[in-house]
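Lay summary. Proteins are chains of building blocks that fold into shapes, and those shapes determine what they do. In this project we predict the shape from the chain. Here is one chain we studied, written as its sequence of building blocks.
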Amino acid sequence: MKLAGSIALLFLCVLLMPQCSNAQEKAQPQAASASQSAPASTTAYTLPPDKLAKAKALYELRGKLRIIDTFYSLLVLLALLYLGVAAKYRDWAESVSKYRFVQAIIFVPLLLLTITALSLPLDAYQHSISLQYGLSVQRWNSWFADVLKSQALVLVFAIPILWVLTTLIRKSPRRWWFYSWMFVSALLVFVILIKPFVIDPIFDKFEPLEKSNPQLVADIEKVIQRGGLNIPRDRIFLMKASEKVTTLNAYVTGFGPSKRVVVWDTTIQKASTPETLFVFGHEMGHYVLNHIVIGTAASVAGLLLGFYVLFLISRWGFSRFHQRWHMRELSDWVALPMLFLIFSILSIISQPIDSTVSRQFEHKADVYGLEVTHGINANSQEVGAHSFQTLGELSLSYPYPSKWVVFWYYDHPPISDRVRFAHEYDPWSKGEQPKYVK
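And here is the predicted shape, written in a compact code that computers can read:
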């Protein structure tokens, strides 16, 4: 269960998830030269009958789990309020100290650990599904260690964040939403900056790609030169994802001095060199098109609106429920689950906007990847189309998702759309100018 409305878990999304992560590709198990032609034409995304049945079952199961997860997270927050659990935690914290920061050290872990404990069975079931369908190979002890590390990381950020938030509410009842937005926005930028150095290595192993794949780095430099960039070799990394997953991916993360491109080792193991170059080209597209900077700016703007709406609704919520939920004032620790609840609902409502923006970014990166590898990969369109085809097979992507599910949840275009686009995108033979790489 993701507590989407928690400000602490707002940062967890930033801390633990790669920005602009790309549902990537695969190809033949053996490596191939960068000039090797791709196999027979891939015109549409298809699955053999056995994999189609598994993909459909997984698609339907995930759809049900999304709904269950969403409503369950809201019910947990409501239960903490209606059953007086949050009030009890508040009383314990206040009995220990009159200082609010000390109270935060007591109350916030109690609240978040309770939420984590209640969500653990559903999270574990979701991991078991990934194991059952062969998408994950992560052992349970490793998975649980990641849960503990995630929770510890959340608490490190949540305690000061929520202490500042409640202090701002107390000191400035009318403008706390604006000051909170300024504080959270600054912290968001800081977290994105340090994430590649500090956060990511806690969960995965990284090394310079040149260390294990010098020839691949040399081929990648051809793509970099084709795009007119200068990406230092020390900003191209290999992530050892094979210890946890069987799927393929790559992503770009950070900005400024921390910006880097990361390729999963599963991509290198299962993709040909041309397809790996296409993967890199896609990620270089995020790099060139400033998607992290644009996405961060959009998030900051969205947070401004979100905090203001939170301010308006929380005033109504307090006046309506303060006696029932044992809230003395809006800065009371007991009000935090209510704020989380409101933010969760706002996050659910805004998800289609986030998904649409992300799909647009990913499509533009697909275009860039096809263009920047044109002339380097023989038949670059087929390389891209076949990469998406094999990605779909490995990740059991259902070929026929409903338009509503795509609109609401998909942060990447459906695999079937990506295969079709990669196959058909050919401005060169039509005498047209490429969009990004001239």
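What the prediction tells us: Residues 7-424 form one domain.
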